[in-house]
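Recap from last week: sequence in, structure out.
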Amino acid sequence: MVKTGTAADLPARVRRAAEDARVGEFRAVYRPRSADRRSRTWLVLLGLPGLVLLPFAVAFLLDGFGWASGLSLLLTAAYLGAAGRVLVQEVLPGQSPTTVHLFEDGVVLSSWRAVTPFTWDAVTELRVSGVRSAATGVATWHLTLSGRPGTEGEALIDGDVPGARELVETVSREVTERVLPKYLSRVETGGKVRLGPFSVTRQGIAKDGEFVPWENVDRVEIEGGMVHVDRSDRPAGLTAIAAEVPNAVAFGELTRRLRGDVRPDGNGGRSVRSMNG
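Predicted structure tokens:
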């Protein structure tokens, strides 16, 4: 769910991390719900019967009822074993849900085991992928942020959470605005920008040994969780999974700038095409 409010409403550890990182004014909180809710439901359904049966199993063992104690032990072990598996694999570390706290100058990612702040200026890589459910048509967004060496955070944002798409677009826009000038400067001075499997130079784009000069680049799109570099000289272009391309939106904007195919937006700036799940 998404929740607005003030910084005073945040958990103390999140508030301290935000103040230390100087991420600015608090905006909103985005909490995942679907996967975690399902896991916790199974944990209750399996764990509760096991806990109820446990004292009976102990009592039967103390009273020496062989068949009753054996059956109760078997059922208790089955229920608690299944609940323990859900707990370890889906609820505890590595699968714990991450909450995204959006601020004016960055985000703070928090789970029960860690709190990681990122200012927009400190983000070096942003990887975004969206998986759309065939049943509901709703996309679940996976965000991975990387900052200073050794600093990384991940979050899953359910598409049915109000404002989920806007959050993804906000993070993509803020990161793009900061890394794009660095990429342009590097290419314009004769350098190379490497983004996942793609390499961008003043001459064109390369991927896996295949080179496409700018005059043969038709367009670059991010759609359906894929990055497409369409060619004007042949049907097959260059493609890659969006999650494998760090700063994929910045990559798309960089190619449009170098091709001279940037459309002005209504505010006198430059438009950046958003990512689709």
